Amino acid sequence: MKSWLLLAGLVIMVSAPNLAFAASEKQPVPNHSKHFKKDRKQELLRLVKTYTPEKTREWETALQRRKELKEKQHQNYEKDRNELAGLRKQWKEQKLPDEIIRKNSREWRDSKHKGHHHPDRKRVLQDLKHALKEKDETSIKESLNSMLKRVQNRNKELEKRLK
After folding, report:
1. Domain for residue 104, yes or no?
2. pTM of the predicted protein model
3. Are 91 and 108 in contact (CB under 8 A)?
4. Helices of type H across 56-113
5. Running DSSP on this structure, what letter comes out for residue 28?
6. Exposed, middle or buried: residue 154 (CB in 10 Å: 0-12, 13-18, 19+)?
C-alpha cells in the first residue's frame, strides 16, 4: 500500500509542472495572411484612388492579371516538382554523388526561375512610405506610378515564364 502511495505521489510530482506549463503555453496564432494581403491591396487601391484616380483602372487590371498569373504559377509548381523528382531519381540511378545531384538540382531550379529576385521592390515601398509620412503628393504619385510599372513588368516576366 505504501509503495502505491509513493508511486502516485511521484507521478503527481513529475507531471504537475508539465501540466501547469501546458496550461500556460500560448495558443498558436492563426494564419491571417490572406486577410492581410486583402487589406494591403485595399489600402493600396485607396491610395491610388486618392492620389492617382486616373490610374485606378490600370491598377485594378494589373492586380487582377497578377492574381491570375500567380494561380497559374502555383498550378505549374506541382508539375515542376514532379519533373525535378524524376530527374533526381534518374541521377541517383546513374549513381551520381549527392554533391553532383544537389548541384544539378540547383541549376535546374535556377533555369526555371530566372529573374526571380527584385531588389528595387523594397526601395519603392520605402519611398512610398516616406512620401506618405511627409505628405508629399508629388512623391506619392511618383511612387505609385513606379509601383504600377513594376507590377506590370513583373506580370510580363511571369507571362514569359509560364509560356
Report:
1. yes
2. 0.59
3. no
4. 56-93, 98-112
5. P
6. middle
- Say how many residues make up the chain: 163
Domain-embedded: residue 111: yes
Instruction: Please say whether the beta carbons of 65 and 154 come within 8 A.
Output: no
158 contacts 73 by C-beta, under 8 angstroms: yes
With the CA atoms of 144, 157, 116 and 149 taken in that order, what torsion angle do they form, in degrees rounded to the nearest 10? -10
pLDDT by residue, tens only, the chain of 163 residues = 666 666 666 667 666 665 555 555 555 544 445 656 678 888 888 989 999 999 999 999 999 999 999 888 888 777 777 777 887 787 777 877 878 878 877 777 777 766 555 667 778 888 888 888 888 889 988 989 988 999 999 899 888 877 7
In terms of residue numbers, what domain contains 105? 35-162
How many domains are contained in the chain? 1
Contact 101, 88 (CB under 8 A): yes
Cell numbers given for 133: 509620412
Q: Is 49 a domain residue?
A: yes
70 assigned to some structural domain = yes
- Tell me if 161 sits within 8 A of 114, measured CB to CB: yes
